[in-house]
Structures are given as structure tokens and as C-alpha cells.
Design goal:
Zincin-like; mainly alpha; 3 strands; 5 helices; 134 residues; binds zinc ion; 41% helix
Length: 134
């Protein structure tokens, strides 16, 4: 299950590999789910750089989203804290350092329909698969 603990562990790993353990405290939380205007216009992550806070869409908990893509979203948001608020040249360069950069870009490209599928499916409901004990 890709829960908030999974992302916190991943944050520590990304800090080690890409930021030489210089990241410091960054808070992670789930974003309040809002149905996207259209399924292909999903916001997977938001960064509040001044507050060192990253909000992640609950859609990232879906099994249809591969681990490398969930990691890429987290890495992208961390770059907004470390490198730049904007998607400028320095940001783009840093983003390309991510080991699964190419796979992530292919996964999210509109032709593949992955973002659309995840956006259409909506968030996982807590307790939706609760088993009934008789
Ligand atoms: Zn961004």
C-alpha cells in the first residue's frame, strides 16, 4: 500500500541519493481530493516551498500508478523547495537527473492514457474493500 509512510520513506531515500541528506524537514500530507476538471488534467502534487510542505494527491495511492511515477512526483515537488519555484532551466536540468525521468515522461504522456485512466478512477476509498467477518 502506497500510504503516507511510503512517501516519507521515499523522501528519506531521495534525500540521500539526490540531495546528500541536506533536505532538512519537509512535511508531506494528502491533498483534499477534488475531482479534476477533466481526467487528464490531474494535479498529482503541490509544493508550498515557503512552508516546506508537499501535498500529494490520493490518486498516487492507486495501484495503476507505478512506484517510479509516484517517486517522480515527489522528486519534482522537492525540487521546488531545493532548486526553483518555477519550471525554469535549472529546474528542468535537475529534474532530468531523476533515474526514471524518461519512463516517467512516457508514462504521463497523453498518448498513453495513463493519467486519464487514473483521473477517471478517482481516489481509493478508505474502507472500501473492508472485509465482512461473520
Ligand atoms: Zn512543478
Amino acid at each position: 500500500m502506497r500510504d503516507l509512510t511510503w512517501f516519507e520513506d521515499s523522501l528519506a531515500a531521495l534525500d540521500r541519493v539526490y540531495f546528500h541528506d541536506t533536505l532538512g524537514d519537509v512535511r508531506l500530507e494528502w491533498a483534499r481530493y477534488r475531482k479534476p476538471a477533466s481526467p487528464e488534467r490531474v494535479t498529482f502534487g503541490l509544493c508550498y516551498a515557503d512552508e516546506r510542505l508537499v501535498r500529494l494527491s490520493r490518486l498516487l495511492a492507486r495501484t495503476e500508478v507505478p512506484d517510479f511515477y509516484a517517486l517522480f512526483i515527489l522528486y519534482h515537488e522537492l525540487l521546488h523547495i531545493v532548486v526553483s519555484r518555477e519550471h525554469d532551466a535549472a529546474f528542468d536540468l535537475a529534474e532530468r537527473r531523476f533515474v526514471h525521468y524518461t519512463e516517467a515522461k512516457v508514462w504521463e504522456s497523453p498518448e498513453n492514457g495513463n493519467v486519464w485512466r487514473v483521473g477517471s478512477a478517482g481516489p481509493l476509498r478508505r474502507g472500501a474493500r473492508r472485509s465482512v467477518v461473520k
